[in-house]
Specification:
Elements (H helix, E strand, L loop, with lengths): L4 H17 L6 H12 L4 E4 L6 H11 L4 E5 L6 H5 E6 L4 E6 L6 E5 L6 H13 L1 E4 L2 E4 L5 E6 L12 H4 L4 E3 L6 H10 L15 H12 L5 H16 L3 E3 L3 H17 L7 H12 L4 E2 L10 H11 L6
Parallel strand pairs: 1-8, 1-9, 2-5, 5-8
Antiparallel strand pairs: 3-4, 6-7, 10-11
């Protein structure tokens, strides 16, 4: 069998997912979405209950690609400089020196991002959007790959600053890890109960290889009919009677980019409609703002997306 760049892509994709799976048992779908997000050069928002492995997933992903790992615990008193860094005076050298913050890690976790003040959230999300930070009029480039994995607890809203829609749009995907199945939890007790798998986890790729995979995914072919399909989905979300805010153009590009990665992960050099359908919910659901005064039809973003996908004719492969 001839080895192509896209079959190699698929092998590397599965290697990362399998390696992270040694630390996060029984959640292959969530892990594949996280790796897809990484290789699409996007950022990930995980909304789930405490203790289901959100931070462990991020750490395992960082170890798997040999990236620096950074972490901040978001609190109301967290300052933008605590995230991006600050300039300090070096008395010995008689110069100002920039001290980078945790955002300069290859993969950074922002725990409970909705507990940070809007000003701090904006500083972090600006870094996510621009791939750089500006401190005291000096611009500093962030490393590549660079991925923010932000978490938030859906059950606690007291003392939080929920992310507005314009900032939610900066996240390529929003996922849930969820509780493990009974068998998976038994496996966790048998394995992780006696040792931390992160202590024995090794790298399967280097950062430069991850960047090369991301660039390869950008070259996956998308037929005009698939692009038309993406635009039809976007238009339908904007015109749906249950939505106040539909997909942005950024969201359309995000779905296209993620679909390319999924195609390459399956050893294909072209996108199928099924790639778009499978990724529509994690890429789009958090971006839609619903009209809560409407009591008919779809009542959740997930239902709106399912309704739209079922109504739009699927283009021929």
């Amino acid at each position: 069998m001839t080895t192509t760049p896209h079959t190699q892509f698929a092998e590397h994709f599965q290697a990362i997912a399998a390696n992270v799976g040694k630390a996060i048992l029984g959640k292959p779908e969530a892990l594949e979405l996280a790796v897809t997000c990484l290789l699409a050069e996007g950022h990930l928002l995980i909304e789930d209950a405490p203790g289901v492995g959100k931070t462990s997933l991020a750490k395992a992903l960082a170890v798997s690609i040999q990236a620096d790992f950074g972490r901040i615990s978001c609190t109301p008193d967290l300052l933008p400089s605590d995230v991006v860094g600050t300039t300090i005076w070096n008395r010995a050298a008689n110069t100002l020196e920039f001290q980078p913050g945790p955002v300069f890690a290859g993969i950074m976790v922002a725990d409970e991002i909705n507990r940070a003040s809007p000003k701090t959230q904006s500083a972090l999300l600006e870094a996510m959007a621009e791939g750089q930070v500006t401190v005291d009029k000096s611009t500093h480039m962030l490393p590549r790959p660079f991925m923010v994995i932000a978490t938030q607890n859906p059950l606690e809203y007291e003392g939080t600053y929920p992310l507005p829609e314009s900032q939610l749009d900066r996240f390529l995907m929003k996922i849930q890890v969820g509780y493990p199945s009974k068998q998976a939890e038994l496996n966790i007790l048998d394995t992780i109960g006696t040792q931390n798998p992160l202590d024995h986890l090794g790298a399967v790729l280097q950062p430069k290889e991850v960047c090369a995979l991301a660039e390869l995914a950008c070259g996956v072919y998308i037929a005009p009919a698939i692009n038309s399909y993406l635009v039809q989905i976007a238009t339908a979300t904007r015109n749906h009677p249950n939505t106040i805010l539909g997909m942005s153009t950024r969201a359309t590009l995000a779905l296209q980019r993620a679909s390319r990665v999924r195609a390459a992960a399956q050893s294909r050099d072209f996108v199928l409609p099924d790639d778009v359908k499978q990724l529509a919910e994690p890429v789009l659901a958090h971006r839609l703002l619903l009209d809560t005064s409407t009591h008919t039809g779809a009542s959740t973003a997930k239902e709106v997306i399912a309704e739209i996908l079922s109504a739009i004719p699927t283009p021929a492969n």
